[in-house]
Design brief:
heterodimer, A: alpha+beta, 2 domains, 3 helices, B: alpha+beta, 4-stranded antiparallel beta sheet, 20 helices, 11 strands, 62% helix
């Protein structure tokens, strides 16, 4: 085995590995990139029902509606310009409350109600998810610098 | 006064770090031994000063000195003493101070234990460490000074995020940082070697113990973090592929690759430039992890309170450290010629395969973690990359790693005999097949992938045992002979076996808990009963309780199986009035084969409480396996040949005439 041959083997192995990795990554990206929209963007765009997306904004004051006798919750996510109704079955995170920033992941139903598989509220109450802060800023209502 | 002393000590440490970073470098270049000697004293002095500084901040926390802004923001008089102390590093400024304290400690250890290193190499290693320290102390003093005063002092502090008031998380950062920062030693050795233009087996022997120590600590830190997430976040999961988790996982992956490639340099004098590159990349990934967590550029559950100026500063440090060292690498690496040749199928070959796969896995995790950031910078939309992405890319890459882990240690150096090894591994193969088929029969055809993964775990465990049995000639030689052999196998080899066995346990734990988890989400009233994986759980209701600095609502579940009482689970929801937060305290009953896991949510007596109940099979094995891996690392670290003080330039065995250094 000469040095040159060995190097050739190594390069070939490396290239093969990269090829496999690229294939895996591209394949996984196809289904697993989840785009984020603010309620305004959601209203402006055509989103196919059933496509997995994320929506973020504030939980509108007075909009939380708990169904008696089940763990289904309905609430409204707003960027103060537009809002979207969300339905979620499951346990809400500890810091989920009215007026707080929230990101929901799921898909839009044909009736325009967003059905969430996941509700993310951040663990620090001073912390605003950057996407939400951005969305609110675009809607022109929220000033940066509220946190520490 | 004490606080000012801490601040002042930090400024002095900055000056010493600069001295440590310059004089030895000049000394090594010009051959002046007095300049080179500066490094040692400066490293010890710098560590002492940082320790004083850290002690001063701890003092401010313990005495609740609310004239210090950092204490006000993160502490409160009502907090238990343990969390007053751990509160020191549960915030950005304090944790950066801990970071440089550990960096200083590593510098001091190199100065202390490195007496046997060639003078110029030691001087350069210490200089690189000094420069890293200089950058980070500067960062603390300019952007995140923990000693800033506030006037007038408020009567009480704002408290610590209650999620962080937890023993698991209290010790997660120190271990994690010890790992991150420990890789700085490997980095410093790599840069020093690039400056010297020489990498040899002795170099690898010096680098390995540091890398191993850092790796052990990082493993433990990640395991603690994952354990904390499991019992504290109340989601029933242990790993979420969250960007911040990934940030600690990336240096772990490349650090693991580094550990393995350094073996090839040490034993066979090959793969030199690759090993140096890995050392540089591993520490760069550690720095990147720090940057990602501090800058808040990525959305994550962790998110420290962030400040763009800090992000830019750390990014600049990252660019200088990794950019500079990579440039040096580009200039110097071509001159490093590998020594030992080897066939593709050989021990070296299997280690190369391990490295290729680990590096590829690192790259895919890196891509998935940073892709949202790239798109955001290009203004191409906001996306998130979820766990399915990582499962689809990372898991397939780990399958060949584990297959090869069974075979590699049994291959000979230079040229291995694959059919021979496979025939000696027939028992492991048979066992793996039996486990796979057994799982399929027990769990049904739909768990075919999980059955494969369980078979892999069995394969790895069995091949580790077979490899050991082969070495000691178990049952093929008299038992006394086997015992004699067993005692003479080097500890580093035992370390490898134990660590690999630990991974087998982890793989089994991850597979079983992901594939066969039972989740029940219900609205329950007092008296209701629900069945979870053969256990009957009766909800007894909720009562209020008072803790030292919180009020808790405690639910109670009576768990029975076939009529006999198993345990009572008492999940809590704690409200912290000072911080204005609530936390979930999951109740966990473990049998070591499975966990019963209960979480209580919102509700009231009339409508019922929302509860989440899980049965997680084999989930404790994940952390048990991680601990076994760390033990393996420690066993290997205790190998005499890895002692920093025992550099063996030649493979000469100390004869009986030479007394061996004390163990």
């Amino acid at each position: 085995m000469t040095r040159k041959r060995r190097r050739l083997y190594m390069v070939a192995a490396g290239v093969t590995m990269l090829g496999i990795a690229a294939a895996l990554v591209l394949n996984a990206f196809q289904d697993n990139l989840v785009f984020f929209f603010s309620p305004s963007e959601l209203a402006a765009r055509e989103i196919t029902a059933g496509q997995r997306i994320r929506v973020g904004g504030l939980v509108e004051e007075g909009s939380i509606e708990r169904q008696a006798d089940s763990h289904t919750v309905r609430f409204t996510v707003t960027d103060t310009a537009r809002s979207v109704r969300v339905v979620y079955s499951g346990m809400l995170p500890d810091l989920f409350r009215e007026g707080q920033g929230v990101v929901v992941q799921g898909s839009l139903g044909p009736d325009g109600v967003f059905s969430a598989e996941e509700v993310l509220a951040k663990h620090d109450e001073n912390y605003m998810p950057p996407e939400v802060a951005d969305a609110l800023q675009k809607a022109g209502h929220w000033q940066k610098g509220g946190g520490t | 006064m004490i606080v000012e002393a801490g601040h002042f000590a930090l400024v002095l440490a900055l000056v010493l770090a600069l001295a440590q970073g310059t004089f030895p470098l000049i000394g090594a270049a010009t051959g002046r031994s007095d300049f080179m000697a500066v490094g040692r004293h400066a490293a010890l002095g710098q560590f002492t000063l940082i320790a004083i500084s850290f002690a001063a901040l701890t003092y401010a926390y313990v005495t609740s000195d609310f004239s210090v802004a950092n204490v006000v923001q993160n502490s409160h008089t009502a907090k238990p003493l343990l969390y007053k102390i751990t509160g020191v590093w549960a915030n950005h400024e304090g944790s950066m101070l801990l970071w440089i304290l550990i960096l200083g400690a590593f510098g001091a250890m190199v100065a202390f234990f490195g007496a046997n290193l060639p003078a110029s190499l030691r001087a350069r290693v210490l200089a690189v460490q000094g420069l890293i320290g200089f950058g980070f102390i500067l960062f603390i003093l300019f952007t995140s000074n923990p000693f800033d005063r506030i006037w007038p002092p408020p009567p009480d502090g704002r408290g610590l995020n209650p999620l962080l008031q937890d023993p698991g998380l209290a010790f997660h950062p120190p271990f994690l940082y010890f790992g991150y920062v420990g890789f700085s030693v490997a980095f410093a050795f790599a840069v020093a070697a690039l400056i010297e233009g020489r990498v040899d087996p002795a170099w690898a022997r010096w680098v390995r113990p540091w890398t191993l120590a850092a790796w052990c600590s990082l493993t433990l830190g990640i395991a603690l973090g994952s354990w904390w997430a499991y019992y504290e976040l109340g989601w029933g999961g242990f790993w979420f592929w969250d960007p911040v988790e990934n940030a600690s996982f990336l240096p772990w992956l490349s650090g693991t690759a580094l550990l393995h490639s350094a073996i090839v340099v040490e034993k066979r004098d090959a793969l030199k430039s690759w090993t140096v590159l890995l050392a540089v990349l591993t520490f760069s990934l550690s720095l990147m992890g720090t940057f990602l967590v501090r800058s808040g550029v990525l959305t994550s559950v962790h998110a420290f309170a962030t400040d763009p100026a800090r992000g830019v500063f750390i990014l600049a440090l990252l660019v200088i450290a990794s950019g500079g060292s990579l440039l040096l690498y580009a200039v110097r690496a071509p001159s490093m010629q590998g020594g030992g040749l080897f066939a593709p199928i050989s021990r070296e070959g299997s280690l190369v395969l391990n490295n290729l796969l680990l590096a590829t896995a690192t790259a895919t995790v890196f891509l998935g973690t940073l892709y949202p950031l790239f798109l955001d910078v290009l203004d191409a939309g906001k996306v998130s990359v979820g766990p399915p992405f990582f499962n689809m890319t990372f898991v397939p890459l780990m399958v060949p790693v584990i297959v090869a882990m069974g075979i590699g240690p049994m291959l000979a150096w230079k040229r291995g005999d694959l059919p021979g090894v496979l025939s000696r591994l027939w028992l492991a193969l048979a066992l793996a097949a039996a486990i796979g088929i057994g799982t399929l029969i027990a769990m049904g055809v739909q768990s075919v992938l999980a059955a494969l993964a369980m078979a892999l775990a069995g394969w790895l465990m069995a091949s580790v045992l077979v490899e050991w049995a082969e070495r000691v000639k178990l049952f093929r030689a008299p038992l006394q002979e086997s015992w004699r052999r067993a005692r003479h196998i080097p500890r580093s080899s035992y370390g490898m076996s134990v660590a690999h066995a630990g991974l087998a346990v982890i793989v089994a734990g991850i597979t079983a808990s992901s594939a066969w988890q039972t989740e029940v989400i219900r609205q329950m009233r007092a008296g209701d009963t629900v069945e979870v994986a053969g256990y009957s759980m009766q909800f007894e209701g909720v009562r209020e309780q008072r803790g030292p600095n919180y009020i808790s609502r405690q639910g109670e579940f009576l768990v029975t199986r076939n009529g006999s009482v198993v345990t009572t689970l008492t999940p809590e929801r704690r409200a912290y009035p000072i911080e204005g937060d609530t936390t979930t305290e999951a109740a966990i009953h473990t049998t070591w084969l499975a966990d019963l896991y209960a979480v209580i949510g919102d509700g009231n007596a009339e409508a019922g409480w929302s509860v989440r109940l899980y049965h997680n099979p084999l989930v404790p094995w994940i952390w048990v396996g991680a601990v076994i891996m760390v033990l393996g690392g420690l066993v290997s670290l205790s190998d005499r040949r890895h002692r920093v003080g025992v550099p063996e330039r030649r493979r000469a065995r100390p004869g009986p005439a030479m007394p061996a250094p004390a163990e």
